[in-house]
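Researcher: I'd like a structural prediction for the single chain below. Treat it as a standalone chain; there are no partners to consider.
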Amino acid sequence: MATIQKTSSRYSLGAILLHWALALALLGMFVMGLYMADLPFSPQRLKLYNWHKWAGVSVLALSLLRLLWRVTHKPPELPPEVARAMPRWQHLAHNGTHLALYALFFVVPLIGWAYSSAAGFTIVLFGVLPLPDFVPANNALSLLIKPWHEVGAFALAALVLLHVAAALKHQWIDRDGLVGRMLPGRY
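Model: Treating it as a single chain, here is the predicted structure.
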């Protein structure tokens, strides 16, 4: 299949920067979450939990910015030759994965915020700005919410891996140049 060359089929620089910033933030959040979850109670654990919360609020803000960008800047259509080569199930997977990713960009941090609030720990952004509690402090509620943050994070990680696998398929198997639409510095 021919490699995609046209600039019109590329994402805008803003979309590319937001994509990769969110990708790096999510990777960092997931690794930090895995690491800190099994730490014994200590000042280090408390510090990492605070950083994780700050990063979660930052991911939420970045996700909102990315969604606003997406709504105000129409993404390029799949190139016709790529769209024709993809079976219907791949089109459905493509659209469904993107929709689910966007949903989880918001759901996972909001559940984390709700859990922190229910557990009685107000998020103080960067140690300076206290954020309003998302839900009232309630230990029973915190115990109900806690596993959903973890489930959501693992679901988001699974979708990210699926997204990466599809990108690698397009790059190395299909060799259709689709990945180049989202790489920086190739204008």
